[in-house]
Amino acid sequence: MTYCTIIPTYNNVRTVADIVRRTLAVCQKVIVVNDGSTDDTLTMLEPLKDKIQLITYTRNRGKGHALRLGLDAARNAGYDYAATIDSDGQHRPEEIPQLVSAATQAIKQSNNQAILVVGSRNLQADGMPAGNTFANRFSNFWFRVQTGISLPDTQTGFRLYPLHHLPCLGLLTARYESELELLVFSAWRGARLVPVGISVSYPGDRVSHFRPFWDFFRISLLNTALCIIALVYGYPRMLITKLLNHNS
Q1: What total of structural domains would you count in the chain?
Q2: Domain holding 121: CATH number?
Q3: I need a labelling partner for 106 at 20 to 30 A (CA). Which of 36, 53, 56, 196 fits?
Q4: What is the reported pTM?
């Protein structure tokens, strides 16, 4: 299994270089997508530009857009899987091999089924922002309604994606909540979702672009749309896939 790591970043000047260096220590191929940063992010990445593939543009387009560009670049480079990790310091790049190991084990047990590994944070951990915890539980509930699958953490950006089995990203949104859209459509398309426990930290100088009211509002709109699509597409597709797999 070949894989790379994608790091989308937007105005994370304090943490991005450290995250990239630590990622390079465990993964030789790293794609950094600079989503229109207006701080000194590019300056911090300058010493690392020969070790990474850098995609950059001037206008902020949203995390979903950055992920799509990174995933397209990884797919075009011929990789089978791509890990994604946030650049704000909450995730530990040293745990990327744990995601890869979980995928490797799941692939051995599957019958040509796509494996999507989802890093799962401990929502009860000390220091977990209350707004993030509520939004995640809210999202987990609606994800179960839309797919019939229970996951402990549907909001994490620390994942390992099967590049050749992904749905189109950004059909409904190109912003922060696009990761939820990608998870739901992957489940509908028959991917096996494998949760893996990960550690998480929220340093005092961490820059977060999570906006409690607006992001929760956008997630609510997305969940409404996904529930409607689940009735006419998601559940029928999962049922047909299950029947075909059973017959085969």
Answers
A1: 1
A2: 3.90.550.10
A3: 53
A4: 0.90
